[in-house]
Batch of 3 targets.
Target 1
Amino acid sequence: MPAEYTQSDQFCGARIHQCDLSGLEIRDCDVTGLKIVDCYGGNVSLGGGFERVVVNDVDVTAYVEAELDRLHPNRVLAREATSAAEYRAAWDAIEKQWEETLDRARRLPEAKLHEQVDGEWSFVETQRHLLMASDAWIGNAVLEEDAPYHPLGLPGGGMPAEASAKLGLTLDATPTLDEVLAPRLARMATMRRVVDELTEAELDRVCGRKPADPYPDKEYVVRRCLTVVCKEEAEHHRYAVRDLTVLEAGARTE
């Protein structure tokens, strides 16, 4: 079994020299200041939220972002929405893309929708995560619902297990796609109602709650909450269609 290190700081500031790092996977880590110098490899993949990426002394940050925006234009709508009308337009696009992608996913056997591609969330797990995002940022923070968290919600990897348990989440559940989509589509309908009724004054309202207890204690305005949900939807749709392509190819060869 390969070694696994979780929530450790033993590599912070370390210098790794002339070691075999083939197959190394770094996931959900702070890599600020990471340098890979004079190394070689046949297949190197980077993914995440990087402020600046330099490859062989060339800053490729702007190029990568522009290419992602070209391939996934809804990222721009989600990121740049500032007015009530722009949030409605962003949600229109998000609803449309998921409707098309869910139709595409349903053409695969159910088992395929539970497969992870390269260790990423499965299609069903992605829907569970977006359910959680809506519960936290809309149901809890914006709407202050009495019981905002659905037990099938799946938080990001940074939330401690005990915090998830306090929210009533059943992380080890294995629901079918339809079982997840029942609450997921209901949350999307709630978001539809929120943006349809949105006013400019509401955008700047300070929420009475934060998304969940593990989040920092500070002010959360409605505008930020809507942006987070729209960006989560756009980015995870990008991941989902990427992995669906792999799953479809696998299904054709079986």
Note: The longest strand covers residues 54-55.
Target 2
Amino acid sequence: MTQAALCDGICSQAEISKIENGRNSPTIDLLQQIAKRLRVPISLLFQDQHQSEQFREVDRRLTELFREQNFDGLLIEIEKIKQSVFNNEIVLLARYFEIVSAERSKKVDYRSSISQLAHLADKEDIWFESPKMFLRIKMAIANFYFENDQFIHSENVYEEILDLNYDTIELKKTRLKIIYNHAQQLSFQGNYKKGFETANVGIKESLALDDGSFLGHFYYQRGYFNKKMGGNIDEIKKDFTLSYTIFKAFNMPNYEQLVIDSHVEYLLYRI
């Protein structure tokens, strides 16, 4: 059903679009009309929210075990999920952690891990059913390539995922993280020109979203790339000072100190 068909006689198409993108919250009356038009119980419209909360909790638990490198505990949790969870997205998350933890614990090599992750990502409709898991899997593939000096393959993966249609606020914010990671890898490769362009895209998209999550990082990256290329000193000072100020305002002392320790001579002021 198109947006136009869904909203006909109920509300404007713009209203439906804003709800889908997370910009507006619908009233109960509007939800009842939408449910009636879709011929589903109104409770079904809240199902995604419950599943999202369940996904975040499982993700938090598995991520914590992974960061602690508690791979035995991670595998125990994954087996529990396989036996008791019927949410396809969470099962996919568990399989993702199973693959990446096997590589980190040296049970399989990175090529086998990439092959297994690619098989997951190639499943039909995964981009539509769980775009955040699709992107996560692709990012893991890019990282494995990068860590093993396969820079061309890593760059191809980034180009593929950044060319996708990020049509919700949540996905657009995920895209900011991808852009940041891409710029980081370009820094390690010494590709300063493309890194500068990538960081610049991150700044523009962060400002358009009114999202400061990575804005300080993007200004830092742009200043760093510009410095490496011998760019305009005033622009370099402006970017490092903006990054320092944002880190200070957002109470991110480690990153604030990074700017001071590495580029204090480019700061226009200290707070």
Note: The radius of gyration is 22 Å.
Target 3
Amino acid sequence: MPEEPKKRRYDSLRRETQALQTRAEIARAARRLFLAQGWAATTVRDVAREAGVSVPTVYAAYQNKTGLTRALVDAAGLSADPAQQLAELEDPAADPADQLAAMASFDRRLYERAGDIIVMIRDAGRSEPELAALYTNGRKAADRTRRQVFESWPPGSLRDGIDLPTAVDIYAALCNIDAYTTLTDERGWTPGRIEQWWREALPRELLDPGRTSPRR
């Protein structure tokens, strides 16, 4: 008798693990196909075939193709380790230059690990309103984070003549997927070199000259 509850518990864990593995395989298959043949040209049936599962299994896991794409967006954000960025931003010893460095590091990780997904969603969004909304919402969320960080700085941190909206705009103009891909794909820069440039350029463009040297 004592063995029966343990057996049921392990069976449940096995089913949960298998379900997670199936969802992950579906997501990996979708990513491969979206990047290889485009979002619009990829069907749920294609994803099911690539993942080795049934079409109803894909629908049960992600509801539809947009839901699957949204899951890829979430995975892209997690791949950049937002917890690390948060810890660095909340470091009591971090000054504005340090926080800009933490944000630049996060953007480097995001574009290095998931830039292809970001570009795919942005490009597909030109003809797919739901994907356009995903891309736009992601940009707005990034802007909100930047504004919250900038608002937390001591008065006088920003350069003379730069208000909060302008600071957010300048950050977005420097640290974006197009700048990243231009430098890596066309100019041969490494991700580390891009991050270093951002760490130097952001304080120079945004901060009062007395606050431009990060600790790291």
Note: DSSP finds ten helices and no strands in the chain.
